[in-house]
């Protein structure tokens, strides 16, 4: 199964990706996580990406498209994958199409901006695994520690309120047009499109996803 998770920053893509990758046995491809790993490793890509990400802007299409194509070509993606945070612009979506990479399901997480700002303020992450928590809405079993490894949880550099607001602006301007793009693809019979109410609690969103994807 090949899936795209579409939605604003903080809409819950990474949270539900953890559930979906286990349920369907497919890898999560998070372009944000890939870029953060590159920053941590101090690679040339990481150095280029850091400033752009800290400003809440998007990394260039060329770089991202190359990164994703390379990742999809790996062996563990042959039975499917879960794209989290990609595509994020029309040229990125077109590049997938031109490369003949068909998509089965597009899932849109619908969450208003004010809810998102509140979520980001309490987000904590375990970078090595991609697991995501919230101090109130999805707390870890032990405060500040990852449930599986017990390692420290971190706050993402781009989660300050002013950066979050910039990222939301970028989302509405550059990524939201993909809603219409994939709805048209669905109408043409090229994929299924599911819009999910992402304001519901994590467990309810999970249940809804399981229902639409097995229906
Ligand atoms: P990326 O890492 O992709 O960030 P994002 O899209 O902005 O999304 P987030 O990871 O912030 O949110 P999410 O939807 O995964 O929410 P989460 O589950 O964590 O990208 C970062 C940067 O990298 C970009 O700004 C850009 O610079 C660059 N980049 C990445 N991809 C790119 C691309 N394709 N092209 C160009 N540049 C790119 O949840 C958020 C919080 O809410 C958590 O605390 C969670 O516990 C909580 N939560 C989740 N669900 C619920 C719920 N149902 N109820 C209550 N709380 C919830
Ligand atoms: Zn994420």
TrEMBL record:
Pathway: Purine metabolism; AMP biosynthesis via salvage pathway; AMP from ADP: step 1/1. It is found in: Cytoplasm. Residues 123-158 form the Adenylate kinase active site lid domain. Pfam families: ADK, ADK_lid. Its main location: cytoplasm. Keywords: ATP-binding, Cytoplasm, Kinase, Nucleotide biosynthesis, Nucleotide-binding, Transferase. Its EC number is 2.7.4.3. InterPro entries: Adenyl_kin_sub, Adenylat/UMP-CMP_kin, Adenylat_kinase_CS, Adenylate_kinase_lid-dom, P-loop_NTPase. PROSITE patterns: ADENYLATE_KINASE. SUPFAM superfamilies: P-loop containing nucleoside triphosphate hydrolases. ATP binds at residues 10-15, 123, 132-133, 200. Residues 30-59 are annotated as: NMP. AMP binds at residues 31, 36, 57-59, 85-88, 92, 156, 167. It comes from the Bacteria. It catalyses: AMP + ATP = 2 ADP. Residues 122-159 are annotated as: LID. GO terms for molecular function: AMP kinase activity. Consists of three domains, a large central CORE domain and two small peripheral domains, NMPbind and LID, which undergo movements during catalysis. The LID domain closes over the site of phosphoryl transfer upon ATP binding. Assembling and dissambling the active center during each catalytic cycle provides an effective means to prevent ATP hydrolysis. Monomer. Catalyzes the reversible transfer of the terminal phosphate group between ATP and AMP. Plays an important role in cellular energy homeostasis and in adenine nucleotide metabolism. HAMAP family: Adenylate_kinase_Adk (MF_00235). NCBIfam families: adk, PRK00279.1-1, PRK00279.1-2, PRK00279.1-3, PRK14527.1. Belongs to the adenylate kinase family. This is Adenylate kinase. It comes from Alteromonas ponticola. The lineage of its organism: Bacteria, Pseudomonadati, Pseudomonadota, Gammaproteobacteria, Alteromonadales. The gene is adk.
């Amino acid at each position: 199964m090949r899936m795209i998770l579409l939605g604003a920053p903080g809409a819950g893509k990474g949270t539900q990706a953890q559930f979906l990758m286990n349920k369907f046995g497919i890898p999560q491809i998070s372009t944000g996580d890939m870029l953060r790993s590159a920053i941590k490793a101090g690679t040339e890509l990481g150095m280029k990406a850091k400033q752009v990400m800290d400003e809440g802007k998007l990394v260039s299409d060329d770089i991202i498209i190359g990164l994703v194509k390379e990742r999809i070509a790996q062996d563990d993606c042959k039975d499917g994958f879960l794209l989290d945070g990609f595509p994020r612009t029309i040229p990125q979506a077109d590049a997938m199409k031109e490369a003949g990479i068909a998509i089965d399901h597009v899932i849109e997480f619908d969450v208003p901006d004010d809810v998102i700002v509140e979520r980001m303020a309490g987000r904590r992450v375990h970078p090595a695994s991609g697991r995501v928590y919230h101090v109130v809405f999805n707390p870890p079993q032990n405060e500040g520690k990852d449930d599986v490894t017990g390692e420290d949880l971190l706050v993402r550099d781009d989660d300050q309120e002013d950066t979050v607001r910039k990222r939301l602006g970028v989302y509405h301007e550059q990524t939201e047009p993909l809603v219409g793009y994939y709805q048209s693809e669905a109408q043409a019979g090229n994929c299924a499109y599911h819009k999910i109410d992402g304001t519901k609690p994590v467990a309810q969103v999970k249940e809804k996803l399981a229902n639409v994807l097995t229906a």
